[in-house]
Amino acid sequence: MIELLIVVAIIGILAGVGVPIYNGYMTSARVQSATTNHNNVVSFVTATLTKCAIGSATVTLGSTVRDCSDNSSLWAGYFITYFNSISTNPYGENAFNGTDATTPSGGPRLGLTGIGGTARGSTIFIRTNIGNESGGSAFLPVPGGPGNMWVEIRRE
Fold first, then answer.
1. CA 105/CA 99 separation, integer angstroms
2. Whole-number Å distance between alpha carbons of 75 and 18
3. What is the per-residue pLDDT across 56-113, written as a single tens digit (0 to 9) for each?
4. Domain extent for 138
5. Which terminus of the chain has fewer Cβ atoms in its 10 Å neighbourhood, N or C?
6. For the chain, how long is the longest CA-to-CA vector?
7. H or E segment at 78?
8. Environment class of residue 25 by beta-carbon count within 10 Å: exposed (0-12), middle (13-18) or buried (19+)?
9. How far apart are CA 82 and CA 97, in angstroms?
10. Could you give the CA distance from residue 58 to residue 55 in angstroms, rounded to a whole number?
11. Where is 153: in which H helix or E strand?
12. Distance from C-alpha of 153 to C-alpha of 52, rounded to nearest angstrom
């Protein structure tokens, strides 16, 4: 009987140590996943707009053909629709929504990527809330860092 109590006590101690370590690991994995999502979105948008710049009249996003002559605002919507269909929020709190801008710091919400453009301009803007180890907001690109608070990809 005493052996059983000792085994139960050891399991309790291991669980008490393991749960915080696991939670820290999961938080770190979410930040890394959101960072990877951000980098993939920037790379994909850049590559897609490059196809237009080198002479393609149309580009296929998923199963939809898009016209390269459309303005940046329309392109932002196209990218949002495309990423909504293939992406999930690593934090699991909100569906991927590229136009989300509900935080006081200019959005998007935790784990989401904001994608925007202007009807008359030729620039796509991208920003991601990757979160941080304490569960708060942290953005890519880094505010106050080199450049702007948004990645700017210019359509040629």
1. 14
2. 46
3. 999 999 899 999 999 998 998 899 889 888 888 888 865 555 445 434 456 688 888 8
4. 2-154
5. N
6. 79
7. helix 72-86
8. exposed
9. 10
10. 9
11. strand 151-154
12. 13
Would the CA dihedral through 52, 56, 60, 66 be positive or negative? Answer: positive
- In the predicted structure, residue 7 carries a pLDDT above the cut 50: yes
Contact (CB, 8 A) for 102 and 136: no
- Number of structural domains (the chain) is 1
Which one, of 42, 37, 43, lies nearest residue 112 by Cα?
A: 37
Please check whether residue 112 is in contact with residue 97, taking contact to mean a CB–CB distance below 8 angstroms. Answer: yes
Q: Which residue has the tokens 């920037």?
A: 42
**Structure-token match 């237009």, residue found:** 52
Q: What is the pTM of this model?
A: 0.80
Query: Which single residue is written with the structure tokens 């359509």?
Result: 155
> Encoding tokens for residue 15?
């669980």
128, two tokens: 């991601």
